[in-house]
Amino acid sequence: MSAKPGARSQKSVSSKTLSPKTLAPKTLAKTLAPKPVAPKARLPKGPVWQWSAVDTAAAITSGMVSAVEVTEAHIAHMHAVNPKLNAVVVDLSDEALRAARAADKLRKGADRGALHGVPITIKENVDYAGRPNPNGVPALMSVVAPSDSPVVRNLRQAGAIVLGLTNTPEFSFRGFTDNPLHGLTLNPWRPDITCGGSSGGAGSAVAAGIGTIAHGNDIGGSLRWPAHCNGVTTVKPTQGRIPAFNESATAERPMLAHLMSAQGPLARSVADVRLALGVMSQRDPRDPWWVPAPLEGPKPKGPIKVALAKMPADINVHPSVTVALRQAADHLERGGYRVTEVEVPDINGVWQTWCDIITNETMALQEAKMLPVTSEDFHKAWGGIKAKANPLDMVGWMNATAARSSHIRAWQMFFEDYPVVLAPTSVQPTPGPRADTESPERTREIFWNDLRFISAINVLGLPGAVVPVALHDGKPVGVQLIAGRYREDLALDAAATIEKRTGMLVRELWSRAD
Question: What is the pTM of this model?
Answer without folding.
Answer: 0.91
